[in-house]
Write a structure and sequence with these properties.
D-Maltodextrin-Binding Protein, domain 2, five-stranded mixed beta sheet, single chain, 3 domains, alpha/beta, 37% helix
Amino acid sequence: MAQPPIPLSSLRAFEAAARTGSFRAAADGLSLTPSAVSHAIRGLERSLGVALFLREGRSIRLTGEGEVLMHHVQRGFGELQLGLGSISAHAGHHLLRLHCAPSFAAQWLVPRLRRFLDETRGLEVRIAAGTDYTRFLADEFDADIVYGPPPPSFYGPVHRSVALLPLGTETVTPLCAPALAGRIRAPADLLAHTLIESDNKRVRWPNWFAANGMAAPEPRGPRFDRSFLSLSAAADGLGVALESTRLAERELASGRLVRPLHGACEDVAYTGHWLVIPRAKLYARSVVLLARWLGAELGVDLSPSAAVEHGAASPRATAF
């Protein structure tokens, strides 16, 4: 017997409840009553012959069958959203509201912004930089590029409300002005130089010295709370910075900074930056354009299927 048609409204109620983890929150988002959402989902479960949610008091969570259905429903609604956007009268103009870690924005993103806009004609970009994580509560941002993955509890009990996509491996190594490089031939030589401290880095001097079998000296150099400030100070000859080569790409390419111990030390590789997207925005045209462009620039897969389980990020990303 053929499967009877499933009302689109039932699938929409199911998607909203699975995404928010609450019939009430789903109802608010759909301008319905909680009982209407519950009724729609029970009708869907009867039609399919399976339970989609485990109901525990006022809380709900997806069953295994619900997880499978959610994957396909989100993808289906996303593809539908993309299709509608591609034929809309407003298809030529899209707005991307991006929140971004300050040093990634200043050192990596903004220098490439012209190329990004040239390759995504019709996209308008608004960027706000900050070290805080956005919660996506007021729909003020479409995506967030963060430094270090947010803790699993940050977005509330329903961690599946966001997709967490790693932006690839970064190499953290000592960097200095060319005038200093000639006096640094081995890791021990750093002990005679001023070591610039970056207060908010996940990989700091003790981590790097430990990787090279040494104890780190007591901090005595200038301290900064942003990587772009540490890189600028190092380029001006204030000392040696321990920073990501990704963030220092321009300075390394121009020769303002060099890697004095390249090939003569153990550098630290880790996942520093992540792209966070609300699952409701995964297939929005502006977000798709951003993810495709970022993925091509960084050589990583940023498709929705590449998202990691929030709270199960790579240990290398959280070890420091």
